[in-house]
Amino acid sequence: MASHRRPKQPSRTRVTVLTTAAAAAVALSANAANAAPSEKPSKDEVKAKVDKLYEQTEQASEKLNGAQEKQDKLEKEISTLQDNVARGQEELNELRDSLGLAAAAQYRTGSIDPSVQLFLSADPDDYLDKASTMDQLSSQQVETLKKVTEKQRALAQQRSEATEKLADLADTRAELAKKKKEVQSKLSEARKILNSMTAAEKAALAAADARATRASERSALSSAAAVTGRAGSAYAAAQSKIGSPYVYGASGPDSFDCSGFTSWAFAQAGITIPRTSQAQASAGTRIYSQSDLQVGDLVIFYSDQHHVGFYAGNGQVLHAPRSGTVVRYESIDNMPFQFGVRI
Length: 343
What we know:
A six-stranded antiparallel β-sheet has the order 1-6-2-3-4-5. The protein has nine helices and six strands, in the order αααααααααββββββ. A hairpin with an 8-residue loop joins strand 4 and strand 5 (328-331). By secondary structure, it is an alpha+beta fold.
């Protein structure tokens, strides 16, 4: 008689493992299916992220401009100090030479006056104290020694100042390198995101941008009143650069960043204003109401004042917006307005 064995049933543990694995697989598949449509951000999301990166780039760029300006100033101050030290050392050497000639003349006569010996002391202060009590110096000799002492003190002070400024310059150069790296990193990230877009998406963004620019230009030109004086000359110079590319750190005449554009334009009118947007924010009379703005006024944006442009009338600004754009008109409402500045 044949033997009929019952098939071996899987253990409870094995069933649990298999069931759990199957459930996990189903869940992963469902999640993947649900996530798939949202993996690629929308065109508006890409634009918002890129705009934010460009804003951060400009923040870093203005700090970069500030560090560059500080470096230039320090280099000039150090050069002046070093020139002063060199001239002062020559004058000191001449004074010492005159004392040496006096000693040589006395030596040739067979004796050196004790006062001249004290002249040649390594410590003029100590010498002056001793000489005044010994009444061994003529008024002319006392005056010469005072000049030596004052010159030594001045040289010591100037050398100390130069040393401090050289240390400050080293720190500033390190900050400059850091800011350059930060700007380049943000730009690289923005370009990477833009390059991930399709040609059609890029074209749509460019077309929308161009439409907005044309509308702003028509609005500004339709209401712009004649601007006179130096402000008018500066604004006219700014208009002559419409279409020039934005390049961070550039201040003309062929490319600009935001504050480089405004400072260049005022320079054409014979007016020197600070290089950075933050410094330009304090370069004139502040105007807090948009309704009080006049064509040619500077307009400051963002709470940290990292962007500046010209007011162009009818709620429009003329500015160098950001990397990848050119000098153009744009609505004042596209950025958080802080105040105007009338130079």
